[in-house]
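Protein in question passed on here:
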Amino acid sequence: MVKPLNGACVLLVEDEALIAMNVEELCREHGAVDVVTIDSFESLQADLLDARKISSAILDIKISEQWTDEFAKLLQTRRIPFIFASGYAANHTVFEPFAGIRVVEKPYRESDLIEALVAAIAAPDALEQEESPPN
């Protein structure tokens, strides 16, 4: 049986250790072959995208008391599908530059998180459509 994250290398940006462990296990149960967990803002560097073949990401909007929105913009630039998993409400102003990127609010159901990530992976042209004017 093919699992929805079959073969994925997921970047997980989460500074709460228990949440990170649960999400890593959840991703692996759904077929991810690797989960790279970043738990501090200082470790959130662009070169980790070059060092690993990151295929998708789950990003908390704030770790180590620092906003991760610039890194999210880097993910968009590199066309790496991602979602936010955050304690901030989806209508928070920090998410305004990320129209079309799903925000899964904590606490969330595991199925909602996986469903959102799978949808992001399945729609890689979503970023291109946002940047291109309609015909």
